[in-house]
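Possible regression after last week's pipeline update?

I re-ran a chain I had predicted before the update to compare outputs. Posting the input and the new output here so someone can diff against the archived version. Not blocking, just want to make sure nothing changed silently.
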Amino acid sequence: MVLVLILIAVGSVVFHVFSPWWATPIASNWGYIDWTIDLTFWITGIVYVVVLLFMAYCLWRFRYREGKKAEYDPENTKLEWLLTGGTTIGVAALLIPGLFVWSQYVTVPEEAVDVEVVGQQWIWSFRIPGADGILGQSDARRIDADNPFGLDPDDPNGQDDILIDAGEDLHLPLGQPVRMLLRSIDVLHDFYVPQFRAKMDLVPGMITYFWLTPTRTGTFDILCAELCGVGHHEMRGLVVVEEEGAYQAWLAEQQTFAQTMAEAGIKAENAVKLAMGGDETSASRSGASQWNARK
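New output (post-update):
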């Protein structure tokens, strides 16, 4: 048994050193998170090896020998202080760095721009503020087929909001701090991009957030890291980090909330007119006129 424990300790260390499972190359400013994870591995790894080797030593040192009798020692103040102090130092070393990183994680810099992430079974949608830099008000009670984000059509700040529908990729500019505003319209989800080292739960009825700065270009997978139903494994998306020029070109091709609602109004009027045998062209003009009047 002594040999087995020693082999387990040595084998675990060797497997960790030569393991093929390492973190993907980082693509954001959150190198601190990698650092805290590495620190956790070092502390827990050292404790794991020490405990195994201590068990092996005890099995060998206090093995049965003819004529030897075990000594009963219910109190050992020195050992208790040693174990208590060592445990306290270890726990503090695990927790304190994480608290500092968490403080940075939720302290958003002033130059950060907002990007809203909307999760629902089992798709991701995104919203980016328009030229005014302000996201319009939203409410889950307004969500319908024509307004999947639940935006307030009477809020002027939302008219130029850029809507990235489900199935389309999110684009982010390289080097620009971004505050991710997370909203769920059904169950718990978790927005996670492994290369960003950043993740956060989406909780129905509230808006959670974190921030990051993309540090290298590329296309990265968006995953849901919270079990959210039978289609959980299919809740995936893509985020594209690109240079500012390419990002602005992509942004110019996207539709705003006002354009989306205008098209919805035209389609609704067309459907009514066609059902009544009316003229589709006049219906289109009527729908557009009604939307402009609402604005």
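Follow-up from reviewer: compared with the archived run. Residues 2-61+78-105 form one domain. Marking as no regression found.
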